[in-house]
Amino acid sequence: MIDRRHIGHTLPPFEVEVEKGRLRFFAKATGQTDAVYIDEAAARDAGHPGLPVPPTFLFCLEMESPNPAAIRELLRMDYRSLLHGEQGFSYHAMAYAGDTLRFQQRIDDIYDKKGGALEFVVRETRVSNQRDELVAELRCVTVVRNG
To answer: Which fold has domain 15-145?
Structure first.
């Protein structure tokens, strides 16, 4: 069983600069057809100061953590028994190419179901920009299959 004393544990924050090339690549890879995600002039014409960060791209940037496996290692979870259970995003402000985003990860909850056969780890991540404005809150639920 995962030790519940880790609920509330925060990892050291880290920062990632949003690069135009990565935004364009992500937009292309995900089939985004809206020109504001690819063309800076189209983005400005639509009222944006630059290329906006496409939905769900923050999940990719979160993987830029100095140690993407830090929570898994802290909780001693065997990756062979893990499932991605849920991913959610709450947006509060736009982010753009050139922004520096700060990610603060926290273990929000740990609980089990089916008599401990399944354990759930809820990670909440606050994302803020270089002006310390809240951009988004990410929620990820990892499922651990026991037995």
So the answer is: Thiol Ester Dehydrase; Chain A (3.10.129)
